[in-house]
Amino acid sequence: MKKILSAVLLILFGAVLGLRAEAKGHLFIIGGGDRPASLTQQFIALAERAGGKIVVFPMASATPAESGAGQVKEFLELGAKSAEFHILTHDQAMKPEAAEILNGAGGIYFTGGDQIRVTQALLGTPVQAKLLEIYEKGAVIGGTSAGAAIMSEVMITGDEKTKPKAGQEFSILKANNVITVPGLGFIKTAIVDQHFATRKRHNRLISLVAEHPKLVGIGIDESTAIVVNPDGTFDVVGEKDVVVYDPTNAKVTITPDKSVGITGMTMHVLLPGAKFDLKTRTVIT
């Protein structure tokens, strides 16, 4: 019965996602690694403007209580007036009253770890519906590493169907190899990847762009973030770079053995201070 209810809720939330008006909130998507204090302070400022309280979801972590407490401590030390963390299972998140923990929240933050743990807990629940609602009304939704991956509707899991030897992960350009599952769906026009240049993740994002040529691939490096604005643009902030793969005018070839060929794809390497328009797929100068 629970599985049937979850499936129905997923369909309903999918309809909401497809029909919703332009969100008034921001997405603060961090590529992982060490975060300069300025990034955290910028997130806090957006949360304060939207209502104040910051709610941390640390379920991606293998030690969520420790991760949650540490993140709350960081927010408070850097100027947040109110921050708290909550660890939810799927059964807990399915209860309508669970969404009440988001009442009054101006910012939601997802920690790093394994993104599958987050979607298993929240996907298709009243908590996910409330997250989308407060984002539409003006809250900032942020996350780092795994907390970045969950932002897109097509979510990279970190696994691949081939079983490479250690150190040879994602060493090929192949379609139907990178394993994806539904993410929380805050961003529907792009696939987000994290730790991007540092961990040499170009192959897996290019492979996914070939499979999903209507989506932009966004690879965010460590100590760097994109801030997605209500108008559909994003700003690059932090210390390193963001890579964008735009297949709008590309010709994609996928052979019977799933090898990938792409011609005419546009690639941008954006430094801090750059701005990109996700609607027109252009760099704003």
Topology:
Blueprint: H1 2-19, E1 26-30, H2 37-50, E2 53-57, H3 64-77, E3 83-85, H4 90-93, E4 105-110, H5 115-122, H6 126-137, E5 140-144, H7 146-149, E6 154-160, E7 178-182, E8 190-194, H8 202-211, E9 216-220, E10 224-228, E11 233-238, E12 242-246, E13 251-254, E14 260-263, E15 266-270, E16 275-277, E17 282-284
| Tally of DSSP helical segments | 8
Largest sheet: 9 strands, mixed
Q: How many distinct folded domains? A: 1
Under CATH, the homologous superfamily reads: Class I glutamine amidotransferase (GATase) domain
Radius of gyration: 18 Å
CATH class: Alpha Beta
Unreliable runs, pLDDT <50, ≥5 residues?
A: 1-20
What's the overall geometry? globular
Report the count of strand segments.
17
CATH topology: Rossmann fold
Task: Tell me what portion of residues adopts beta-strand conformation.
Answer: 25-35%
**Average of pLDDT:** 91
CATH architecture: 3-Layer(aba) Sandwich
- Percent helix, as a range, is 25-40%
Spatial gap, N to C terminus: 53 Å
Q: Which structural class fits the helix and strand makeup?
A: alpha/beta
The helix/strand series, from N terminus to C terminus, equals HEHEHEHEHHEHEEEHEEEEEEEEE
| Biggest sheet: strand arrangement | 3-2-4-5-1-10-11-16-17
Quick overview:
This protein is an alpha/beta fold and 285 residues long.
Characterise the protein shown here.
It is a single chain. The protein has a single domain (2-16, 26-284), classed as Class I glutamine amidotransferase (GATase) domain (Rossmann fold, 3-Layer(aba) Sandwich), CATH 3.40.50. By secondary structure, it is an alpha/beta fold. The strands form four sheets. Strands 3-2-4-5-1-10-11-16-17 form a nine-stranded mixed β-sheet. A four-stranded mixed β-sheet has the order 8-9-12-15. It has eight helices and 17 strands.
